[in-house]
Amino acid sequence: MKLVLSVNTFVPPAVVLLVLTILFTVQMVSPVFAKMNEAQINEGRTDNLRLENVSVGWVSTDDILFSNTDKLSISLTGPFKTLSEQRDKKATHPGTLTYVDQVGNTISLDVGIRVRGNFRLDRSNCENPPLRLLFNPQQVKGTVFEHQKRLKMVLACKNWPKYNQYVVLEYLIYRTFNLLSDASFRVKLLEIGFNDSAINKDARVLAGFFIEDNKRLGKRLKKKRYPDKDIWISELVPMQTARLNLFQYLVGNTDFSTLRSKEGKCCHNVKLYQAEDDLLATSIPYDFDFTGLVNAPYAVPNKAAKINNVRSRRYRGFCEHNDLVRQQVSFFIERRQAIESLYSQSAELSQFSKTVSRQYLKSFYSILGSPESVERKILKYCR
Asked: Based on the domain organization, do 261 and 372 belong to the same domain?
């Protein structure tokens, strides 16, 4: 901006001051907008120069079930012997879910029960297959399950106490990513009493958790599921993807892909979401029983990672995002106390599980504490 005045022109001091203020403001604001543009590209948005960070925290929602982190005790009645023997994903079995609400009333809901999953559905791997519960939208009004039509339920794989520990650790890994990004699946910890409707036996009690439904997650984020088709690195939100990959390294996970599945299309243990005005897709991880932090007996690392066991970490991120990962180091360090507290303050974990978890998390943060270690132990293995 140039101001041209003749030598004979008289300019009041107030006008001169106003012009100088405008020039100073333009000079200061321009770099800010430039940075906003760069940040928006990393976040995958360009609408109206709106900067949308990958925020963190427990976001408000109209889903009562996920509005807090309290454990929910439920009783589930159904033909579980038949269900376990058949393990047919297409079959829906009638059941009843019962719980006690906050004022002490016993609430009973009719549910449909289906088995689901892949590895854990196989009887040779798990005694208890993962379940999906189907709800009556009219019946759940006014209950903690309001707005829920279907929910995935993760269960302890076997009826042994240590398997309850594994499922609680997996639940806490979901909670860990909640602390890192709102673009994450929320979970609800459960104590489940199983009653077989065909067998007169005492209920067996297992640990488990509900996972936020895909459509409810999309509504919360104001995004839709990305189609199951091929996707390229350049089509993913860079910052979220860099954060996801460093998170997977934290928990010791190699059993995922933001690009491909065994069937050849996107993705493996990652869901993609995209709004109409988004240029790029947001990647959200799930399914963490093969992580080093859980360390389940059946877990094995991805062969492509070339490590001997799941406790050995191997970074699976992209070289294009290395600068973003370097930026994420301070972000992860800032959240260290909150992450470690999830495990150390868990009422469900044994002292042994707390100690092992603390040591595993500590080993991650010892790497982040040294830029040289970040390069040598993490970024060196980028793809």
From this structure: yes
**Tokens of residue 338, six digits:** 């909150």
pTM of the complete model: 0.86
Q: What's the rounded Cα separation, in Å, for the pair 26 and 24?
A: 6
The pLDDT value recorded for residue 200 is: 76
Q: Are 299 and 184 in the same domain?
A: no
Sign of the C-alpha dihedral computed for residues 67, 50, 282 and 276 taken in this order: positive
| CA dihedral of residues 231, 235, 238, 244 (deg, nearest 10) | -30
Q: Which of 160, 182, 215 is the last residue of a domain?
A: 215
Which H or E element spans position 271? strand 270-274
Q: CA–CA separation, 71 vs 24, rounded Å? A: 55
Tokens (6 digits) for 240: 């979220």
Asked whether the CA dihedral 89, 268, 180, 346 is positive or negative, the reply is positive
Tell me whether residue 18 is exposed, middle or buried, using C-beta atoms within 10 angstroms of its C-beta: 0 to 12, 13 to 18, 19 or more: exposed
The encoded tokens of residue 37 equal 């543009």
In this structure, which amino acid lies at residue 68?
N
- Domain check: are 128 and 96 in the same one? yes
Distance CA 198, CA 78 (A): 8
Q: Which domain holds residue 270?
A: 226-381
Q: Which of 168, 196, 215 is the last residue of a domain?
A: 215
pLDDT in tens, 15-61: 545 545 555 444 444 444 444 444 554 555 433 323 234 445 444 45
CB 165 within 8 A of CB 349: yes
Q: pLDDT band for 198, please (50, 70, 90 cuts).
A: confident
